[in-house]
Description:
Blueprint: E1 4-7, H1 16-48, H2 57-75, H3 89-121, H4 129-152, H5 162-187, H6 191-196, H7 200-207, H8 210-223, E2 228-231
Helix pairs in contact: 1-2, 1-8, 2-3, 2-5, 3-4, 4-5, 5-8
Amino acid sequence: xxxxxxxxxxxxxxxxxxxxxxxxxxxxxxxxxxxxxxxxxxxxxxxxxxxxxxxxxxxxxxxxxxxxxxxxxxxxxxxxxxxxxxxxxxxxxxxxxxxxxxxxxxxxxxxxxxxxxxxxxxxxxxxxxxxxxxxxxxxxxxxxxxxxxxxxxxxxxxxxxxxxxxxxxxxxxxxxxxxxxxxxxxxxxxxxxxxxxxxxxxxxxxxxxxxxxxxxxxxxxxxxxxxxxxxx
Length: 232
């Protein structure tokens, strides 16, 4: 019986049994990334107690946008454990754009709540590395969305080198995701977070966004490596 399996050059040189172990390890990693991103977002929403203050909506909007929607918007292209694996490529692209639009919208909303909260409390803006990188992440994400528009409407925007633009889009997307991950990690060193989450739970929070980041980086990298087929 012939079975065609598409795989990344990362697995090149492996025997059949080792290759299937490699495939299942990747699947488990992707599923764990889904669980970690969703779990982190739910916990952030619970600890933030949205509605108790203007600021309480800031971590809610940002965690939903950058920890959940951005992660899922990238991992939906994965063939190993994506909940949207039944979708066509065109359907995945549309869903990717919908999720990335939510990232920009949610990020802008979270920024608005932060600005309103600081004005109400008369506190200075952009006073920490977390806030500076947060603004940089939002700008980078918005620019990524603009680049994606060129891929979505190449004829309308007169894009000639579609393949090269896809590569640039993926590379810049990786940088934007890294910025988002660093911003989230720095948020855990803010006064509000350290007063809210203490003890061993703080270390668990620190690890939760890092694991999806590793999986996403691997996904983006392997997605643009040449593919081969093996036959069993």
